[in-house]
Amino acid sequence: MANSTRFDSFIAEEVNKYQGKLVPVKASVLERIFVRYVACTKLHPNPYDEFSDASIGPNYEIISGYEHRIKESRAHGDPAWDDPILVEKMLPEGYLILNGHHRWAAATRFGEKRVGVKIVNLTQETDIKKMLEISRHDRRVAIDLDEVIFFQNDADGSGNAAEDPLHFPYNKLFKERLKTGVPALLHYLSVNGYDIWVYTSEYYSMDYINKLFKMYHVVVNGIITGIKRPHKIEASKRRELEKIMNAKYTETLHIDNGLVLLTHSDSKDFEEFDLSGNRETWAQEIMNTLKELRSKEATGKDE
Which sequence spans correspond to the domains of the chain? Predict the structure, then answer.
């Protein structure tokens, strides 16, 4: 209990030390490629994570489990765990923990000098504003990477649910598979006047997602990563970004697995279009829906 209390105090000191002062910054390509281990003292708990919340705090049962794994790994000369701690470079110094607080805590308490890390560059508010400044169109499509674009699992064994994997060696660099029809759909949207914005709650680097789509010859205009970060963009800043988005785009097309939702910024009106749920025809159904919409628009203008 005494050790737990001391560590709670240490976390509180770390949070107070950087609260309101930390600034996420971009790590260079070389840093993200070659920095694989970092001193535990260079990692800092995220003040917005439950781990750092005094009313919730660390789960010492989980920490003890990781400490046991460290002890066993030392005895056998094996790594304590295979998955690195996800971090983001920050000012004034060091790295902010995004995922892996309990592994870091176990390593720190056990006296480990270094831990394995993966450094990522997440989307920041300034990134969003820059992407909006260079965007070309007044219409956009918003689509979720995790639930819609990335192939998850061919549970029923029907096959043909995912695009072919990339050729070697790119299939080793990019493990994610796109759902069948996604490249054709995004290309169609791009050439027909839509900016493409993709969202993910996961901690992907922006440039990783950008390069992945380039492998499929698809241009993505906006990439927002790590949207599950609590309080990352305060409510006032969110409202500001929404206002900028609404001023930039007259309409937004929200694409899901079973639904297409079209919203109009000026009137707040919306239209819903149901999809059959057939994975083989999903992309074509969306393209057909948009063709019908554009045809109606053209007819209405002619009249």
Answer: 2-119, 125-302
Note the pLDDT tens digit of each residue in 31-80. 999 999 999 999 999 988 889 988 888 999 999 999 999 998 888 777 77
The overall pTM is greater than 0.85? no
Residue 89: other Cβ atoms inside 10 A: 20
Give the pairing of strands 270-274 and 259-264: antiparallel
Residue with the two structure tokens 């785009």 = 249
Residue ranges of the chain with pLDDT lower than 70? 1-3, 154-160, 228-238, 300-303
Sheet (strand 251-255) strand order: 222-224, 194-199, 139-144, 251-255, 259-264, 270-274
In angstroms, what CA-CA distances link 172 with 28, 126, 206, 247?
21, 31, 18, 41
CATH class of 125-302: alpha beta
Q: What is the pLDDT of residue 162?
A: 87
CATH code for the part of the protein at 2-119: 3.90.1530.10
